[in-house]
């Protein structure tokens, strides 16, 4: 569900555009950093290919304060327009490389033009691991979910399957139980669970949770929404939804190529969202600032992005004073 | 500008209400924590007396992603309704004390009833130091501002006075210069500036900044908006606005009384928004998590509140398992 918007004005020339700040990523972190930076009169290009990042995939968002219920695309539209209002140049393009350039600058190469910038904010987010079975993509937001914290309340009085064996699956199962799901099947591919023992103690006290081992999903079936989960052993379960809580992968490839220091695959930043490289900042789900994976939310992304933008503004101001620019 | 809403249903009985979580504060941190916790099926009372906290005082907000322009009251209304939708009990009351109670609980005593809770989130925010001169309160949001990061862009091509001598005043002055204020008078009460030297170097490169020493404001005058700033030496300046960047004070009194550990007057928390006392969490401007005072924004408050609510939910879940409750 990568949405490219051909209607957007883009630049396909080979010209190099010079700007003060380059932001990579179009999710809530990237767009918020763009809003704060451009509102502080910094020239900004916000470059990415996935409209709204992970947020763009959400059909219903109920937990971003201020909006009772909004789709990820609609919220992205609003955040994008707000950043553009203050002068952010939004660029839909695939970045092939970011290179260090002369004069302590960075050159962002994309299929929609090259951008030479004095500072970078990496807000490349992460991607949920997928089950990779037939039916999965068809029912995203229609019963298939990757975030129990976000979507559990939509499954009150429903029957759901939770796939995964780690802490995220465990807490997702409990969250579903708490909000009043009728029945939760927690399935593990193997004959054990990898989550902390304390979660299993909690599960055992719930009447509506059943744990099944050695179950590998082979297909997700339904009409408009999910109706049935098929397993490779030939069995199946009737269910209104499935939560794939099998982990996530940070989009850290550009950071690695730049030599940015990582911490367990995530970009390591200090409290001011600075990385180990002067002029490079990071925000959102790609950073190690959010210790608890459950806390990778739109709210925490916009918070970190604010800090990253304010730090980048101070860095750019200091460069001016030093007559570097 | 403390807004009490007499239309709200309140309980003036001496009865003690038992709930799982008590949240103190009605700003963006308190209301976001309430949203996340009540959406996770936790019973929540959110208690405070200032509608919207510091956010409630803002006439125009342009930097909360999703809303191009909204008043602090309107945004508070939305956040409040959203938390209430999931069951949060909103209580307008003045808290006289919070005491530790039997069974690892906390008793919140207010003039709108007492609340016995198993966990607490302190989101009591901070208050900007005021100039304490005639006219100041009359023109809040009409030329008088306490946050340059928030309000500087409204003063493009305007003449403004910045009061204060520290880093906040220095960066506020630069922010106003960056967004294109016509003329900025930076005034210090004494004959020196307390800010970092680097900021003064930057100021000196700007044509539109003038620094004045030994100026003490005696009155703010205007009709609908600020027009003139009077000084105690009998001089005055025509100006469209005044930024009072003279510091802020965290609302830490309840935390101190509970024995919560502080760090430079702010509540000390770990990355999961836990304080030193089990069952007490903190979020927003009252915490030490935001190192840069410029980053005390609605965005960072909703981010920390999310983390605090998720941590509180895990704490409450663990209590259930331990059969403590």
Instruction: Characterize the largest beta sheet of chain A: strand count, sense, and whether it forms a barrel.
Output: 7 strands, mixed
Question: Which two chains form the greatest contact, residue counts included?
Answer: A-B, 61 and 62 residues
- Uncertain parts of chain A: 1-10
From the alpha-carbon coordinates, what is the Rg of chain A to the nearest angstrom? Answer: 21 Å
What would you call the structural class of chain A? alpha/beta
DSSP helical segment count of chain A: 7
SSE succession of chain A: EHEHEEEEEEHEHEHEEEEEEHEEEH
Secondary structure: number of strands of chain A: 19
Q: Which assembly state applies to the chains in this document?
A: homodimer
CATH architecture of the largest domain in chain A: 3-Layer(bba) Sandwich
Determine the mean pLDDT of chain A.
91
């Amino acid at each position: 569900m990568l949405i490219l918007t051909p209607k957007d004005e883009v630049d396909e020339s080979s010209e190099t555009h010079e700007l003060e700040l380059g932001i990579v990523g179009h999710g809530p972190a990237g767009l918020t950093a763009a809003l704060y930076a451009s509102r502080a009169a910094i020239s900004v290009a916000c470059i990415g290919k996935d409209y709204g990042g992970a947020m763009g995939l959400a059909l219903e968002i109920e937990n971003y304060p201020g909006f009772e219920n909004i789709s990820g695309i609609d919220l992205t539209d609003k955040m994008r327009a707000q950043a553009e209002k203050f002068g952010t140049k939004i660029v839909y393009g695939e970045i092939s490389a970011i290179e260090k350039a002369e004069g302590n600058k960075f050159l962002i190469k994309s299929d929609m033009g090259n951008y030479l910038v004095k500072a970078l904010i990496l807000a490349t987010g992460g991607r949920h691991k997928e089950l990779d079975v037939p039916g999965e993509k068809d029912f995203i937001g229609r019963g298939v979910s990757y975030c129990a914290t976000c979507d559990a309340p939509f499954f009150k009085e429903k029957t759901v399957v939770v796939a995964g064996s780690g802490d995220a699956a465990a807490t997702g199962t409990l969250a579903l139980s708490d909000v009043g799901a009728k029945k939760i099947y927690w399935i593990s591919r193997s004959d054990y669970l990898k989550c902390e023992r304390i979660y299993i103690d909690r599960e055992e006290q719930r009447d509506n949770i059943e744990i099944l081992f050695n179950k590998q999903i082979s297909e997700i079936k339904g009409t408009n929404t999910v109706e049935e989960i098929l397993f490779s052993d030939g069995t199946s379960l009737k269910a209104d939804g499935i939560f794939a809580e099998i982990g996530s992968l940070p989009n850290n490839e550009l950071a690695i190529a730049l030599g940015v220091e990582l911490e367990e695959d995530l970009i390591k930043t200090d409290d001011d969202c600075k990385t180990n490289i002067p002029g490079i900042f990071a925000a959102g789900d790609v950073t190690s600032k959010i210790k608890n994976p459950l806390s990778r939310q739109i709210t925490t992304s916009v918070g970190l992005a604010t800090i990253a933008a304010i730090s980048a503004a101070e860095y750019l101001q200091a460069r001016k004073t030093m007559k570097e620019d």
